[in-house]
Amino acid sequence: MRATAKIFLIALLCLCWLSGCRNKQRASMDGEAVGDLQQIKDSGELVVLTLYSSTSYFNYRGQDMGFQYELSEQFAKSLGVKLRVVVARNVQGLIKKLLAGEGDIIAYNVPITKELKDSLIYCGEEVITHQVIVQRSSGKTKPLTDVTELIGKDIYVKPGKYYDRLVNLDKELGGGIHIHKVTNDSVSSEDLITQVAQGKIPYTVADNDVAKLNTTYYPNLNIKLSISFDQRASWAVRKDSPELAEVANKWHEENMTSPAYTASMKRYFEISKATPHTPILSLREGKISHFDELFKKYASEIDWDWRLLASLAYTESNFDTTAVSWAGARGLMQLMPATARAMGIPEGKEQNPEESVKAAIKYINATAQSFSSVPQEERLNFVLASYNSGIGHVQDAMALAEKYGKNKYVWKDNVENFILLKSNEEYFTDPVCKNGYFRGIETYNFVRDIMGRYETYKKKIKK
Length: 463
What we know:
Layout lengths: L1 H34 L1 H7 L1 E7 L6 E3 L2 E3 L1 H13 L2 E7 L2 H9 L5 E7 L2 H4 L2 E10 L1 E6 L17 E4 L3 H12 L5 E4 L7 H9 L6 E4 H8 L5 E2 L8 E8 L3 H14 L3 H11 L22 H8 L6 H12 L19 H6 L10 H18 L5 H14 L1 H13 L7 H10 L4 H4 L11 H21 L3
Parallel strand pairs: 1-4, 1-5, 8-9
Antiparallel strand pairs: 2-3, 5-12, 6-12, 7-10, 7-11
Helix pairs in contact: 3-10, 11-12, 11-14, 12-19, 14-15, 15-16, 15-19, 16-17, 17-19
Subcellular location: Cell outer membrane
Protein name: Solute-binding protein family 3/N-terminal domain-containing protein
Membrane topology: Peripheral membrane protein
């Protein structure tokens, strides 16, 4: 009897254990349902993980922008929730944050690999990425069309995947490619693309999406020669978010032909970001533009020479009141929509030249107050830089200048050098930077161009 009772007790314990396992499994499954799509809708917030870059996410003139950011916004809107962005330092950081529950979905092109499929569900639009040779399409040298033509050529790249690919390609071709590893921390891969466009170096390497974006700044670039195998990539979620993955797949499929998606694609990868410029309206009559009287009327309110205000307008819009930039800035003074509203431009009046100038004056005055600690003789440069980039990026550059022993109250050869470095990961991820990636070369040139043109106006046009 004792033996029978003992066997019965063991059987009862096993049954209880199995029952407990089933209950735990069911609870886990219930947890998945709660922690997936429905939880996001209940919270009213989609937390997106991404990286700072020219193609994914950045802040421009106080407005969040970037192709992946805009797609994330559209996706969040389709779910009826708000968007919150969390930025990681690299792809490994994205995956780590996702698995730790710090975000719901990665909105970045994560490489599709067997290893990552164990912990991720890939979703959304599957894109094909590959590395390309960036070269000039104009000039005396005929563009390269085959990898064998790289033998004997000088190619400049940063350490990492581009350098590694070139080394492997060089071995495949039997040697002969002149590979120059650019180890200077102040030079980014996009800086090298700029140098190619300017004719300073002959060739560099970039991912095809980054290269394509840069052709909108430099139309003289040729990016047709691929040097790597295609790599599939897409967004990703955790394994416990199958419903979110499913709805992301469906949304991407339906969204591909939407006006919003098309507009975002054009904004970053097709629309030229260079403003065409024309010379002075009439040197003989002493006129810079048709809007000289407006500049004269309002420049005194901020104690500016009207010719300086004219130089700013020329750089922004080429005196075209109907101009709309790639980023959505409008009118003679190219104010972003949110800034235009904040500065009092009535909706629908963005193309009114007087409303545009009045609002720009208000914005310049407010910006100048933000730099009250900067000496008067230097303040103008900081105001102009902020007009182009937004105050946050200039403040980041000042913080970097101070950290690296430069004068944060002097623009030329000091703070301007650090606004340039805001496109370099080592610097925009520095703890003193609060606003992430920025294509600083635009602001660097912006200030110099305006001040240079102002000097020309002063020589040729009477005050």
